[in-house]
Write a structure and sequence with these properties.
Layout (H helix, E strand, L loop, with lengths): L10 H19 L18 H17 L10 H6 L22 H19 L16 H24 L25 E3 L2 E5 L17 E5 L2 E3 L6 H9 L11 H10 L7 E4 L2 E5 L4 E3 L10 H10 L7 H9 L48 E7 L14 H4 L7 E4 L16 E3 L8 E2 L3 E2 L1
Parallel strand pairs: 8-11
Antiparallel strand pairs: 1-4, 2-3, 4-12, 5-6, 6-7, 8-9, 9-10
Helix pairs in contact: 1-5, 2-4, 2-5
Length: 439
């Protein structure tokens, strides 16, 4: 798969990529044993069955009427499956399985929606001349549909991760690569400029929050050469990190105390032993894997270590800057990295010795997103997509923080330097780790 989506791809080529993404999402739902598709693995999210319908409803609502002028056979399901949940107010959904359509009805809806769209998508390289397209090409709308589905391949993966093991059909990971030697010394990143975002003239697809490109000057700083590992985080935990008020902000301490959180959500303690819940198994804690934690936990660790989380610009500088103060791009077509659905689980932070930036920082693409200290907000020149106005703008609320990089379950096309992910600070489930900086 290419690392970026460009305007040179025809609608037919993009339709083929959409069909491939469908096969990937179908395969992911098939990981769940059919009796458990109405489960809710994460309290803050919909039941699994919602997402079976949601992926098709999104494509239909984006393309069906707007592009092709098709009339919906089931508008009530178009609405039911239209939107997910982001409960920043702390409220939790209270629906029960009986509130949702039967699995047969959901699959019928999926089949009818796909068939109607596919008749149009396979007819040729069509233009989007409808006023409802808001001046955007069919290529752009197809790219939106593709990346939306690929994003859900990741969010669904971490949701399904929380299902009991006996509710899933095990899948094998390839053998882990051999780990190289590790250095703990922080790396010096000299002062310089870095580009955030995409140019409006770029032929690379980007979401609305990726525009517009602008240059940021970054002071010199030091950064951890690797993501923080389970081994390092265990030291913080054993040192009383979860019981020491000074390491936590007032809001984070209140959240931790209220929920009774005392360790990462992927960990389990049995006596003096710690275990790690992988996607399909439980193993002894892999000490050299990156730790996956919420932003609140990452920030507490950084305070304990006498360091900080990087800003978005610092992270970008360390990952994509060069000693010549020019932007560089990683080689996403190589096998150096844990991304693009190659594995279900992380690998050691030092597994790929060639996976390093121009400054020598390892593993900044794949193997786990990385929290920054930057509140998710608009870039100068931001304009919401008129056909999806809430994609970014609904989250410019001061309650979400930027994550960069990617995980094992991140598609290669979303590893472009401008891509931005974001989550709330108290959300433990996402495949996100961190590294620290000193200034």
């Amino acid at each position: 798969m290419l690392a970026t989506q460009t305007s040179s791809e025809t609608s037919r080529e993009l339709a083929s990529r959409l069909f491939h993404a469908r096969r990937q999402s179908d395969a992911l739902f098939n990981v769940v044993r059919s009796d458990f598709l109405y489960e809710r693995p994460i309290p803050q999210r919909h039941r699994i069955v919602f997402y079976i319908g949601h992926l098709e409803a999104f494509d239909w609502n984006l393309l069906g009427h707007r592009v092709f002028g098709l009339n919906s056979a089931q508008p009530e399901l178009d609405r039911l499956f239209a939107f997910g949940i982001d409960p920043v107010d702390g409220g939790l959904p209270a629906d029960v399985p009986a509130d949702w359509p039967s699995l047969r009805n959901v699959h019928d809806y999926v089949g009818r929606s796909r068939a109607a769209l596919d008749e149009k998508l396979t007819a040729g390289d069509l233009a989007c001349d409808s006023p409802a397209c808001d001046g955007f090409s069919l290529r752009t709308l197809l790219q939106v549909a593709i990346e939306h589905r690929l994003m859900h391949l990741e969010t669904l993966a971490y949701m399904l991760h929380q299902l009991p093991l006996d509710q899933k059909i095990p899948q094998a990971d390839p053998p882990a690569p051999s780990a190289a030697a590790v250095t703990k010394n922080m790396l010096r990143i000299p002062a310089g400029s870095v580009t955030l975002g995409l140019s409006r003239e770029s032929d690379t697809f980007g979401w609305d929050n990726e525009f517009a490109a602008h240059t940021v000057e970054v002071d010199g700083f030091e950064i951890d050469p690797y993501k923080v590992t389970n081994r390092q985080y265990l030291e913080f935990l054993k040192a009383g990190g979860y019981e020491t008020r000074a390491f936590w902000s007032e809001e984070d301490w209140g959240w931790k105390a209220q929920t009774g959180i005392s360790h990462p959500v992927f960990w389990r303690q049995d006596g003096s032993e710690w275990f790690y819940r992988t996607m399909f198994d439980e193993v002894r804690l892999p000490l050299d894997w990156p730790v996956y934690v919420s932003h609140a936990e990452a920030q507490a660790y950084a305070r304990w270590a006498g360091k900080s989380l990087p800003t978005e610009a610092e992270w970008q500088r360390a990952a994509y800057g060069t000693t010549l103060d020019l932007d560089s791009k990683p080689d996403l077509n190589s096998r150096a990295g844990n991304f693009d659905f190659r594995r279900w689980n992380p690998v050691s932070v030092n597994a790929f010795s060639e996976d390093r930036s121009a400054f020598g920082v390892h593993g900044m693409v794949g193997n786990g997103w990385e929290w920054t200290s930057t509140i998710f907000d608009r870039f100068p020149g931001f304009e919401p997509f008129p056909f999806y106005r809430g994609y970014s703008a609904d989250f410019f609320d001061g309650k979400h923080l930027v994550m960069k990089g990617g995980s094992a379950r991140t598609a290669a096309c979303m590893l472009r330097p401008s891509f931005r992910n974001w989550f709330q600070p108290h959300y433990q489930y996402v495949y996100s780790g961190f590294r620290c900086v000193s200034r």
